[in-house]
Hints:
The complex is a heterotrimer. Chain B is an all-alpha fold. Chain B is about 65% helix and about 0% strand. Chain B has 13 helices and two strands. A two-stranded antiparallel sheet of chain B has the order 1-2. In chain B, a hairpin with a 6-residue loop joins β1 and β2 (about 120). The longest helix of chain B is centred in the N-terminal third of the chain and has 38 residues, at about 10-45. The longest helix of chain C is centred in the C-terminal third of the chain and has 31 residues, at about 55-85. The radius of gyration of chain C is 17 Å and the shape is elongated. At the A-C interface, α1, α2, α3, α4 and α5 of A face α1, α2 and α3 of C.
Amino acid sequence: xxxxxxxxxxxVIFFLLAGLAIGCAVAMxxxxxxxxxxxSLIGVxxxxxxxxxxxxxxxxxxxxxxxxxxxxxxxxxxxxxxLNVEEEVRRPAxxxxxxxxxxxxxxxxxxxxxxxxxxxxxxxxxxxxGPAVGQTxxxxxxxxxxxxLPFEITSILILMAIVGAMTLARRTAVRPGELDVPGAAVWxxxxxxxxxxxxxxxxxxxxxxEAAHALGLGGTPQQKE
Amino acid sequence: MDWLNNTLGPEVTRGLFQLIGxxxxxxxxxxxVAYTVLAERRVLGFIQGRLGPNRVGPGGLFQPFADLLKxxxxxxxxxxxxxxxxxxxxxxxxxxxxxxxxxxxxxxxxLHIPGTRITIPLVVTRFDVALLYxxxxxxxxxxxxxxxxxxxxxxxxxxxxxxxxxxxxxxxxALGLSLVGxxxxxxxxxxxxxxxxxxxWFGLHWNIFRLPFPQIFGFVIYLISAxxxxxxxxxxxxxxxxxxxxxFHTEYSALKFALFFMAEYVNMFTVSMLATTMFFGGWQGxxxxxxxxxxxxxxxxxxxxFLFLYIWLRGTLPRFRFDQLMNFGWKFLLPAALLNLIVTxxxxxxxx
Amino acid sequence: xxxxxxxxxxSAVLFTIGVAGVIVKRNAIAMFMCIELMLNSVNLTLVxxxxxxxxxxxxxxxxxxxxxxxxxxxxxxxxxxxxxRNRESLDVDDASLLKL
Lengths: 225, 352, 100
């Protein structure tokens, strides 16, 4: 009895992790609140890291958590919080005639996939005692000998990404007459209204739009929810 | 042990022992954390010229249980407009990510019980990428704080949460890079092997003193990053009472606040354990070869020293302003860690 | 041992869910997240093949893909921020100035 339980454990773990991955992926697509989508995507990444562990690739599993769940998704969550993204509003469905076409194409894709799955053979059993593929040593050796050029190119790629992100995200001072966006930084008075640097009267306002209006910089004090 | 092996099979036996090991480590850490809280209040009291809590039990030794009872019986106040799921999720995320790295730390050498063939390894599990696992869990721990700040629907919580999360992700870079120097010296990411290599030579083989390149610089960078990672003074602006009410855990009450509180102290404990394992020889010390139990004693002594250092710093230093904090992390600590890495790599290549 | 086909099937399902998400969603950040899901499903295929054929180049490729995805995330979110600043809306249907 113990032997069957031990033998069945890899399948149980695979189904649990695969179910978690698919469930979180479907949740991500169907959720309207983008923060819940982001959290579901983190769940997908953690499930995939578990699957990499079952495939005997511990280095890739941990790097997946560090890079995807720990860095990229933190960036996405920060952007969602900064921009205060709201839920998606359900709009009436248009182009209804495309739905049967989509179903047909999906069926064709499914047939192709089923064909491929039935005819992909099992890989030949490798000789036991061969080099361990998933360990850090083999990945490190490969990165620094055979694949040195892609490694160096990715470092330049990351440099380009840093420069690009900083250029895109840089802000100039709000000019008079321009509306400010939610989540904006607090600017000193002389940057916002150069002619009124000496005027230090207090302005009571709830949003930056109201403050801009009260300072006479134009724009309407709309309620931004 | 052989009887267990024969009835249950080797994998199940190993799993059973690991389960027992996890439970022992979990309970041990919670006890140590509870008494760290008490120790902090007493030591801070002495630094500030007063006595800490000393009424409950002899010298205040039952204070943690009194605190636990208080937390259990407090009223749970949930803010009305918060997003419920994330509000409930955040403290659990924080405490889970604080407790998960415990399984890779070696608390001592293998214990051989004399007279039998039983060997008890004092580490729950060893695997190839243990150090990266610790860094990965630290990266995921950021979410607990950011989501807590957001879901409380409170300006001060949000600012505290975002600031704290930004501080954490800035300093975890310097943390990781300062540890790579040790990895270069030890040629492995496995914490058990790193501790094993630091034996002998009367402590001169500890990674902080180890030739070809003693990692003193790396240790200082690691210590500063670790204090920033755990949100302790002088880096605790996001949860300072005078600045932001209580930061990201303003709106949490009773048991959820207790979870955040515990998560902070478990984090402190974890980074202290990582510091002793990577830089101060873990369980190595005089006489460990003959009495392996002394290894556990030395490990706990070294970790206690680091915890005392944390408490001492809390009583002594003022806190950084947030822009000073970010400047320091990005413009000084990260280049310093990179410089340490380059110099270590060069020295190991030429002299190692 | 779990057959290789099951991992490939799971990867195909995740990829399809990602494609459906990109088509259905209107929020720019949600579309970006579905693209990341597609990249991850391909990573799973690569790691599965690398494990079953005992070739390390699959996992090396996954490493490079993750790095490229991180760089793409930084720049992509910067673009989304810039577009939001100009249009006050993250809806990709609203970014249709070049339409006839």
